[in-house]
Structures are given as C-alpha cells and as structure tokens.
Amino acid sequence: xxxxxxxxxxxxxxxxxxxxxxxxxxxxxxxxxxxxxxxxxxxxxxxxxxxxxxxxxxxxxxxxxxxxxxxxxxxxxxxxxxxxxxxxxxxxxxxxxxxxxxxxxxxxxxxxxxxxxxxxxxxxxxxxxxxxxxxxxxxxxxxxxxxxxxxxxxxxxxxxxxxxxxxxxxxxxxxxxxxxxxxxxxxxxxxxxxxxxxxxxxxxxxxxxxxxxxxxxxxxxxxxxxxxxxxxxxxxxxxxxxxxxxxxxxxxxxxxxxxxxxxxxxxxxxxxxxxxxxxxxxxxxxxxxxxxxxxxxxxxxxxxxxxxxxxxxxxxxxxxxxxxxxxxxxxxxxxxxxxxxxxxxxxxxxxxxxxxxxxxxxxxxxxxxxxxxxxxxxxxxxxxxxxxxxxxxxxxxxxxxxxxxxxxxxxxxxxxxxxxxxxxxxxxxxxxxxxxxxxxxxxxxxxxxxxxxxxxxxxxxxxxxxxxxxxxxxxxxxxxxxx
Length: 483
Ligand code: HEC
Ligand code: HEC
Ligand code: HEC
Ligand code: HEC
Ligand code: HEC
Ligand code: HEC
Ligand code: HEC
Ligand code: HEC
Prior knowledge:
Strand order of the largest sheet: 1-2
Distance between the termini: 137 Å
Radius of gyration: 33 Å
Order of helices and strands: HHHHHHHEEHHHHHHHHHHHHEEEEHHHH
Helix content: 55-70%
Number of helices: 23
Number of strands: 6
Low-confidence stretches: 1-49
Largest sheet: 2 strands, antiparallel
Shape: flat
Strand content: under 5%
Structural class: mainly alpha
Bound molecules: heme C
C-alpha cells in the first residue's frame, strides 16, 4: 500500500491525476487514508512549484516526455522523478534545476519495482557482457584486434583515444562500457546502452538495451529485431538464422496480427510461432518466464570447442551457475517447443542438432592440430593476427563454425550448409594449403641458408689458399744471403 500511495502521490506531483481517479482509489484505501494522502499530496504539489514536466513536455525534450506519457509507467504513476531522482551521495548524482538527479537509470534503480527481472538479468551471461570484453583486453586477443591493430596500426599507439574508436563504437556498443568512477560527461564511456554496461553504482547491464526509454515496452522487446541489433553478422547471425527459419517466415507473414502487448502471452493464442523472446524468455508450462537468457541453453555454441553448459563463463572463469545442470536447461527449452510440437518432433530435432555440433567439434580438432604443429615448430609467431593463416583459423571457429552450430539449433538450413559446413570445408582446404606453403617456404629458406654457408666456407677456403700461395711465392723470391 505504501507503494500505491507513493505512486499516486508522485502522479499528483506531475499534475497527471484526476479527481475521478482519486475517488476510484478511495474505494481501495478507505476514506481516512485517502484524506490523509490527499492532503499530504496537495501540500507537496504547492511546495514544488515546478516539476520535471514543467520543462520536459513544454518545449524541452518533448519527444522524451511523449514516449513516457504513452507508457505503462505514466499510466501507473511512475514519473521522471521516480526513476531519475538521486540522493546527493549517489556516485552519479548531478544538480539539475533545483533537483538532484542522475541521468543513468541502472538495473539497480529499476529493481526497486522489478526485482525479479533485475535478479534474473544479473544471473544471465548478458550481465557479464562488458566484463568479458575487459578480460580479453588484458590477454591481448580480441580487443587487441580492434584497439591495437585496427586502430593503433594506422594512427600510432600513443593516441589512446583514437586507437580506441573502433572498440568504442564497435565491441562496446553491443557489450557495454565500464563506467566505474566515470560520469556521463566522459565521451569515452557515454552514451552507451551495451548489454553488460558496468554502471557507476556497480550494477551491471542496461535494461534499455531491449526496452528503449521512455516507452519501456514488452511489445518492442518481444520483437526479434530488438535482439537482432546485436545478434547478427558473420559471427552470431541469430537474426538472419531466425528470418530464414519457418518460425521467422510465420512471424513475417502474420506477426502484425499477434497480441504483442499482453502480459504472459500464450503460445497458440497470442502468437503462432516463437520469436527470440518466445523461445529464450517468455513463459511456458514447465518453463517460467525469465530474464536469464542462459537458463534454457544446454550447449555453449560460441567457443571454439562446444561443450555442454557448465555455467562457467567461458574464458572469464566466472561461475554464474543457477544451481541446475545442462539437462535441466534443455528440458526447459523443450517445454517451450512442446507447447506447439509433439515430443517425438522435439526430441528428434534435438538429436539432429546435437550431431551437427559433434561433427563440427571433430573438424575443429583436426584444424587445431595443424595450427598447433606450426606453432610448436616455431613457424608462426605466438602473436595472434599477424599472419594470414591465423585469420583463417579464427574465422573457422568464430564465424563459419558458430553459424553451422547455431543454425542447426534454430532451423536455418542455408546457414548450416552453405554458410556453415561448406565454408568450414573451404577453410580447412585453405588452412592445409597455407600450412604446406609455410613449411615449404621454411624448408626452402633452410636449403638456401645451407647453400649460403657452403659458398661462404668456399670463399673463406679460397682466400686462405690465396694467402698461403702468396706467402710461399714471396719466400721463394727471397734472395739467398751470401755467407
Ligand atoms: C527549468 C527547466 C527544467 C526542469 C524543471 C527540469 N529540467 Fe531536465 N533539462 C532541462 C534542460 C534545459 C535540459 C538540457 C536539454 C538539452 O541538453 O538539450 C535538461 C536535461 C535533462 C536531462 C539530461 C541531462 C544530460 O546531461 O544528459 C535529464 C536526465 C533531465 N533533464 C531530467 C530531468 C528531471 C528528472 C527533472 C525533474 C526532477 C528535470 N529534468 C527538470 C530543463 C529542465
Ligand atoms: C522507468 C524509469 C524512467 C522514467 C519514468 C523516466 N526515465 Fe528518463 N531515462 C531512463 C533510462 C533507463 C534512461 C537511459 C539512461 C541509461 O541508459 O541509464 C533515461 C534517460 C533519460 C534522458 C537522457 C537520454 C537522452 O537521450 O538524452 C533524459 C533527458 C531523460 N531520461 C529524461 C526523462 C524525463 C524528462 C522523464 C519524465 C517525462 C523521464 N526521463 C522518465 C529511465 C526513466
Ligand atoms: C516505482 C516503480 C517502478 C520503477 C522504478 C520502474 N518501473 Fe517499470 N513498471 C512499473 C509499473 C507499476 C508497471 C506497470 C505494471 C503492469 O502494467 O503490470 C511497470 C511496467 C514495466 C514494463 C512492462 C511494460 C509493458 O509494456 O507491459 C517494463 C518493460 C518496465 N516496467 C521496465 C522498467 C525499467 C527498465 C525500469 C528501470 C529503468 C523500470 N521499469 C522502473 C513500476 C516501476
Ligand atoms: C545490446 C546488445 C544485445 C541485445 C539487444 C541482446 N543481446 Fe543477447 N547477447 C549480447 C551479448 C554481448 C552476449 C554475450 C554476452 C557475454 O558473453 O557475456 C549475448 C548473449 C546472449 C545469449 C547467450 C547466453 C549464454 O549463456 O550463452 C542469448 C541466448 C541471448 N543473448 C539472447 C538474447 C535475446 C533473446 C535478446 C532479445 C530479447 C537479446 N539477446 C538481446 C548482446 C545483446
Ligand atoms: C554487433 C554486436 C557485437 C559486436 C560489435 C561485438 N560483439 Fe562480441 N558478442 C556479441 C553477441 C551477440 C555475442 C553472443 C554470441 C553467442 O552467444 O552466440 C558475443 C559474444 C562475444 C564473446 C564470447 C563470450 C562467450 O560467452 O564466450 C566474446 C569474448 C566477445 N563477444 C568479444 C567481443 C569483442 C572483443 C568485440 C570487438 C572486437 C566484440 N565482441 C564485438 C555481440 C557483439
Ligand atoms: C534481452 C532483452 C531484455 C533485457 C536486457 C531486459 N528485458 Fe525486460 N523483457 C524482455 C522481454 C522479451 C520481455 C517479455 C517477456 C515475456 O514475453 O514474458 C520483458 C518483460 C519485462 C517486464 C514485464 C514482465 C511482466 O511480467 O509483464 C518487465 C517489468 C521488465 N521486462 C523489466 C526489465 C528490467 C528491469 C530489465 C533490466 C534489469 C529488463 N527488463 C531487461 C526483454 C528484456
Ligand atoms: C524455436 C526456438 C528459438 C528461436 C525462435 C530462437 N532461438 Fe536461439 N536457440 C534456440 C535453441 C534450441 C538453442 C540451443 C539451445 C541449447 O544450447 O541447448 C538456441 C541458442 C541460441 C544462442 C546461444 C548460442 C550459444 O552461444 O551457445 C543464442 C545467442 C540465441 N539462441 C539467440 C537467439 C536470438 C537472438 C534469436 C532471435 C533472432 C533466437 N535465438 C531465436 C531456440 C530458439
Ligand atoms: C508458438 C508455437 C511454436 C513453438 C513454441 C515452436 N514452434 Fe516450431 N513451428 C511452429 C509452427 C507453426 C511451425 C510450422 C509448421 C509447419 O510447417 O506446418 C513450426 C515449424 C518447426 C519446424 C519445421 C521447420 C521447417 O523447416 O519446416 C521445426 C524443425 C521446428 N518448428 C522446431 C521447433 C523447436 C526445436 C522448437 C523449440 C526450440 C519450436 N519449434 C518451437 C510453431 C512453434
């Protein structure tokens, strides 16, 4: 009840509540409480002569006001202040027209009312998006590619800001920036809505990555394009895979008539085929709705070698277990499918996809052995991305290999075959060929080194010979001294 009073109180503050609503609410609270609340609310209204909407909605950032005004939040009395008001002691607090506000509204702020969603999100791999990125930075692997080679190579390593440009607008736009000890004044970390943004208050993530401000709608988040903003491209083309699948076809042809807005939408009633959210997040009998997108995955399909989910964030080594096993996670996803498909259909489909993953794993093991031999024989430098064959090897698992595996699980035959196993075969041929060339070149240079040595030795020998002959010659020329 305190919450409800708080909501109505805030609404009044924004001048958005009508007398009718108040009388309606009276029925719930009882007369006494309402009177008390009415007086205190009116007192506050006169105390704060201006409110956020005095300016916002009256010529300043009206687009933001309008989005908010059309949202469930506005309908439920959640105002600008509710989300943006800050305590002066908050790390990200700023003074703003007589108010103390924070521009950033982190998952921790949303958790005041949406604790379940915030906790589930924190449990998922999504919340580690920026941590992942940072970890690799130290190891000189992937971010090394963007910040040091893609950036640094051209402009020189001393201009840190410019070398960072590709990373900032690339990796970090999807993964998130680290705002620890930073403010929104710092253009190297803000603006950013990456999925795992590390916020000044220490919480991880950005709810606005899927629910854009200030509509914060579930309809938007349920659309595949929302996920597709990040889940696309050569290395994780889930949106392309989805659009190729039968589910994606149905979405494209009929999606306009589905009930996107209803809370707890029901498969077969509100929608006929699942979107990304439908399979990975929405509720089904046996699989409660969740913001933990890792909760229904039985495989780790993104690393070089796929393994069953063990809840250890791959190279990061962080344990983010939800206390279950990969079998439990698989059963949850199967429960989703079984809303619309029979058990035989679903169980057999999983077996088909499983063997595609195993086939890939074996192909990877072979290619890896070729590369390891080259490194062991000192034919490649230990640095990544400084030899052409290393790019091919990287693309083998990180691009084509991921495509084949993911498409097998999400019904996209073209990505399994032509953008998957066919290109894996092509890569393997090229890697074998390049490895042979590297070996041949090294042998050739060994032979030519031998030849060089031989010539040098011959030269030295001839020179020595010449010296000896000269000495002998002069000795012979030496006149005999008379006795
Ligand atoms: C007296 C007018 C006024 C009032 C009252 C006001 N604002 Fe603003 N606000 C502004 C102006 C002007 C800007 C700057 C707009 C721009 O940069 O284009 C702004 C910007 C902002 C920003 C963005 C700041 C940034 O650095 O990116 C936020 C967030 C914001 N206001 C929230 C609020 C909230 C929440 C309230 C109520 C607690 C509020 N404002 C009350 C005038 C006002
Ligand atoms: C449900 C919480 C919530 C409410 C209500 C809310 N905001 Fe926001 N606002 C956010 C979030 C989330 C962001 C994005 C910041 C981030 O990524 O942390 C944001 C960002 C902003 C920004 C900066 C974005 C930009 O594009 O410059 C402004 C300005 C702003 N809000 C103003 C307002 C105003 C004015 C209102 C009331 C009409 C309001 N907000 C209501 C959560 C809220
Ligand atoms: C003061 C409490 C409060 C805060 C803080 C708050 N919300 Fe809400 N939110 C609500 C209420 C109340 C509803 C409406 C619930 C309903 O319709 O069942 C709602 C609804 C939603 C919905 C569902 C909208 C829809 O289309 O059905 C989303 C998504 C959401 N909030 C996200 C957020 C995010 C993200 C934040 C933080 C940036 C946030 N909320 C902060 C109270 C809050
Ligand atoms: C702003 C970018 C962004 C958006 C939007 C986004 N994701 Fe992600 N997603 C990521 C990143 C980055 C990762 C990898 C995170 C990591 O490794 O820490 C990821 C990972 C995942 C994973 C794998 C989790 C695991 O345990 O392996 C799933 C499943 C997923 N996302 C589903 C979704 C769905 C469904 C949506 C839409 C409702 C969505 N994502 C929206 C960026 C995004
Ligand atoms: C278009 C958005 C986007 C960009 C740009 C991007 N990523 Fe990702 N990244 C993702 C998504 C989505 C995933 C999850 C893939 C999956 O689980 O299938 C991911 C996964 C990862 C993973 C694997 C995490 C794991 O669980 O194993 C790492 C590491 C990673 N990205 C690092 C980077 C680095 C470094 C860059 C820049 C060089 C980068 N990413 C650029 C979206 C992006
Ligand atoms: C990866 C995308 C994604 C992110 C990030 C995300 N959400 Fe959601 N959210 C969704 C989807 C999809 C739904 C609808 C789920 C369904 O169909 O039941 C949803 C639904 C909701 C709802 C409505 C729940 C209900 O029962 O009606 C709330 C509230 C909400 N989200 C809050 C949040 C908060 C708070 C955060 C940040 C901690 C957040 N979301 C981050 C995708 C996301
Ligand atoms: C028909 C249901 C379904 C739909 C629709 C769907 N997925 Fe999936 N997705 C799956 C299944 C099944 C797996 C593999 C589950 C496992 O590991 O056991 C998976 C795996 C994934 C992975 C994990 C890859 C990894 O790194 O291990 C990501 C990321 C992902 N999906 C994102 C998405 C996105 C984004 C969309 C929409 C563009 C989407 N999915 C649409 C069922 C679906
Ligand atoms: C909301 C209902 C729904 C859910 C949930 C669902 N599907 Fe489907 N699926 C359909 C419909 C409808 C079709 C089209 C059937 C047809 O072709 O007649 C379909 C088609 C398919 C096909 C056939 C693809 C083709 O190329 O013809 C496969 C395989 C499939 N689904 C697997 C799955 C799996 C695996 C899951 C869970 C990870 C799942 N589906 C979840 C509704 C659903």
